[in-house]
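Quick one: co-fold with 1,3-dihydroxyacetonephosphate.
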Amino acid sequence: MKIALIAHDKKKDDLVRFALAYKLILDPHELYATGTTGKRVIDETGLQVHRFQSGPLGGDQQIGAMIAENDMDAVIFFRDPLTAQPHEPDITALIRLCDVYNIPLATNMGSAEILVHALGRGELDWRDIVHGRNNTT
Ligand SMILES: O=C(CO)COP(=O)(O)O
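Sure, here it is.
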């Protein structure tokens, strides 16, 4: 599965801790991230992550482009609802595309817990059917 990891600045510590806690579940999958989030996850967990641009510089849009190609299977996005973001339209567009393409999206740690356990149990394997894939990565 292709999984996107994204966190706003005040949520990055939480996302790094989350990725570390669930490293064994996340590790077999193809991980993608916005630039700064990706750097922290790589440095602090050792997971392999493909990094896009930083969010304010287009990273959310790059992940959105993968979703538009139906080439992203789930998004874990620890949003900061208490801080204005300069690229708010990009964030809204990313979330909208998840809804357009029925991509599982967790925007906080509570829902991310459910999503990552579902991933670990193979409950996202229906995405392989959507793609006509027969493997689990
Ligand atoms: O702003 C972001 C998502 O909207 C995250 O971007 P960074 O991971 O580059 O900080």
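If it helps, Residues 2-131 form a domain with the Rossmann fold fold (CATH 3.40.50.1380).
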